[in-house]
Automatic annotation (TrEMBL):
Any one GO molecular function term: nucleic acid binding
Protein name: Cleavage and polyadenylation specificity factor subunit 1 isoform X1
GO CC entries: nucleus
Leader sequence segment: none
Species per Swiss-Prot/TrEMBL record: Nicotiana sylvestris
Pfam name, any one: Beta-prop_RSE1_2nd
Residues of the RSE1/DDB1/CPSF1 second beta-propeller domain: 215-660
Every RSE1/DDB1/CPSF1 C-terminal domain range: 737-1068
TM region(s), chain numbering: none
Amino acid sequence: MVTSSQEMPRSSFTVELDAANATWLANDVAMLSTKTGELLLLTIMYDGRIVQKLDLSKSRASVLTSGITTIGDSLFFLGSRLGDSLLVQFTCGLGGSILPPGVQEEVGDIESDTPSAKRLRRSSSDALQDMINGEELSLYGTAPNNAQSAQKAFSFAVRDSLINVGPLKDFAYGLRINADLNAAGIAKQSNYELVCCSGHGKNGSLSVLQQSIRPEMITQEALPGCKGIWTVYHKSARSHLNESSRVADEEDEYHAYLIISLETRTMVLQTANNLEEVTENVDYYVQGNTIAAGNLFGRRRVIQVFAHGARILDGAFMTQELSFKASNVESGSSSDSSIVSSVSIADPYVLLRMTNGSIQLLAGDPSSCSVSVTVPSIFESSKKSVSACTLYHDKGPEPWLRKTSTDAWLSSGMGEAIDGADGVTHDQGDVYCVVCYENGTLEIFDVPNFSCVFSIDKFVSGRTHLVDTFIQDPVNGLKKNTEDVMGPGQKENAKDMKINVVELMMHRWIGLYSRPFLFGILADGTILCYHAYVFEGSENSSKVDGSVSSQNSIGLSSTNASRLRNLRFVRVSVENYAKEEMSSGTPSQRMSVFKNIGGSQGLFLTGSRPSWFMVFRERLRVHPQLCDGPIVAFTVLHNVNCNHGPIYVTAQGTLKICQLPSFLSYDNYWPVQKIPLKGTPHQVTYFAEKNLYPIIVSVPVLKPLNQVLSTIADQEVGHQFDPDNINFEGNYPIEEFEVRIMEPDKSGGPWQTRASIPMQSSENALTVRVVTLLNTTTRENETLLAVGTAYVQGEDVAARGRVLLFSVDRNADNSRTLVSEVYSKELKGAISALASLQGHLLIASGPKIILHKWTGSELNGVAFCDVPPLHVVSLNIVKNFILLGDIHKSIYFISWKEPQLNLLAKDFGSLDCLATEFLIDGSTLSLVVSDDQKNVQIFYYAPKVSESWKGQKLLSRAEFHVGSRITKFLRLQLLPTISDRTGTTPGSDKTNRFASVFGTLDGSLGCIAPLDELTFRRLQSLQKKLVSAVTHVAGLNPRSFRQFRSNGKAHRPGPDNIVDYELLSHYEMLPLEEQLEIAQQIGTTRMQIMSNLNDLTLGTSFL
């Protein structure tokens, strides 16, 4: 074997497999992903059982991977910690000849796969750019004479990507492009965004994060007193086209009318081109307000429902008018039974709930396009009052809910009732009616027969799983359960128990494996969200069957046949949604479903805290919208000027027509926009005056190895080293640093680099800051850009660094940014942190800090302090106080009083700091520090306390194990919440409270906020209860996991003064009965706890 291996040609490239990941694509082909992000194919050439040779070939460039795995036989997943993770489809052909067309087809493939390709193009995924790059697609054969060997050629197509914003090294808080500078209160917060340094190497990028959505406005009109808005289509008889073009048309059809309901009248506007009022010329009911409007009969008719009746219209002409009588049973009892309270439309049915809790159904006949009023017999006889109801249209050729019933029902042909007599089946599928009664029971009926197919007792309690009560206890019913829920001592909580469901909604959005969602809004503003699934358990359902038939009760088994017995619901948590204060008044319908707004689907929730609930990959993403305050009405408009955009009316009485920003990706906890940098970003800062972002970026550059060695050799004085003898071959990557000054693009495209400041060779930029210095000659403040650098030349050379000051100007028409160097000076030691302190410049150079004054041309030292002992990693300033973090020696607290810097106190422990910041709560100042063991500690300075050794030692106020390395803190002022606005006097301590937002190397964001004593005690006792009441995440007990980790070093535990909101937020996912019980055990009420948790969410909605 030895002899033959020497004859093998050497391959034409070198590769390092250090830190590579691998997976098998076929039984003889393995794929390796190297640390530079290249994909290599290793083909095993074998003959029988003998491996003849291994063939390694470059395939293409992709994302830097942390893990790689094959899924099935045609997909693999590239998981990445440093860039976006990709799902790639591969196909395998034989022989090298197929490759060029294969590559073409592959690039075409990415584009043609619309749903994910659209999403990928929008996410501007850096990895995707790499996958398409032409020059990296070549497949090197091992040798030219190998052409006849069966070399497998693979082509790849990216099918999906998961956006990753980690590792967050640094971030800056700046203004958005579409900020509204006149906004006030909480609406002002959606003017801001976080610009984060994320990723590494070629996957390095800027991630722009926004917590709340701010739509781009097209136009706005004043419209006081609005109660609701609806857009409707109008289709004449031209709808009998063939099926495929009809579906395409439905997506692109323009809306015909916009109906606006005011307090005492209704306006109708034509929407085809521009909005023009046609109220006078149409047969709509315009003398009073409208309750709802929508399309029936495949968009051929419009139904408009008002308080006492309804009209069916064909375009502008009325074809039928209905008026609602009081239902026969209680005709004498009250007159308000004929007033409509809420409406739900599912073509061809309309469900009405009257103000007295009775129900009427309008059933349409597609052949004559007319509608008849019925009261379903099941509601006619029952005395139970309905608190909320909705229709659910299970669309499509294979309705989803049918899967959950037994086979007996499939054969009974439920769909026939809906087919029109004219032979056109409008959306085939089934219609169901979901009803919730005042007593909290939820039932699902099929329409129009109204036989009950699913029922749940106590829907309001919000259990984690919902199962048909019939299955839980088929014979005895659930009589015994309901009594023992109200245990002794719960009577005072009884008013909490009497919470009604005020609105229901069930919808299934389109998607490959989509399942319906069920939403319920409770009277106290809680939102219950459930996701349906099919329960596949054959053995237990047969047991139920057995027990039923053994009872020999024919009635039960016949109802059992049509039950949706395999239907289950699982509760989904609604993240970052702050509950709103419900107004006492007639509840309007707050949920409106949208099928396509800028390519997204979901529902919009109006009210005092409007939110977008978007559905991606069967997952709910909740994005609040703060910028317009409360919103009273919402609908979607599609016409010439507004392409599938939202229209909404604010509580101030403004109608706004908008577009969702298309450059953001909404399939994330917060909407995000990624801007590829093709280099590693290290630090970013915000230049507010010019709206620019200076960023330190390093790009690896390949240098010849002998050149690299000779530069090191030059420094080594007196070393016998002859550069001519160097005969090292090959290249070595060296990081080259620059400071890029970038500006956000006005239209939301990729950001523009306005200027770039290159560093010298082997000089690393360590910090960039915008500083305000007092020019001592002109006595004026100057805002300059300061950069601190270090020369990295091996350990034999004394460290040096430079401090650079730049002025940044725009020319008159703002087209160009001029950056000019004002000053540069070389100092001993690396310059790792800079800050401006009362007009002076504080520079951390090596193991000391020096304060300089600026004369306009010179920096002159005025004071210095010989701490920290090793190397400053972070530097914060409040007034004249300085907080320093050292790389190994924890934190130092220093004050500046002319003429000197004084060390006030320090932490005597050894701690490897990563980031520091001040935390301000009224008049108390605390010092926050994070370390490499993933902890956070909060210290305070108290010279009067005896343990502080006359003030030399900082005392611990709280400590917490975050579980991620925190690399950056940012201090932001807490927002006023509801309880603050009412309870406190202006100018009190409550106004001067700051929280600290932080970013971690895992790509997560968090916040540390001060609490007042009373709330803290309440939430702390709640936390102790929840440790045993809530299932632990990943099996980590919150008490032990959140203990400070000291990695074997001596550590004296600090006080337990911090509560974990992650754990507290599980409280609202508990069933209502458990919530009340826990609240009672800690001596408070559920309302009180909910309001505290809500205040925390509101107080920290900074973005």
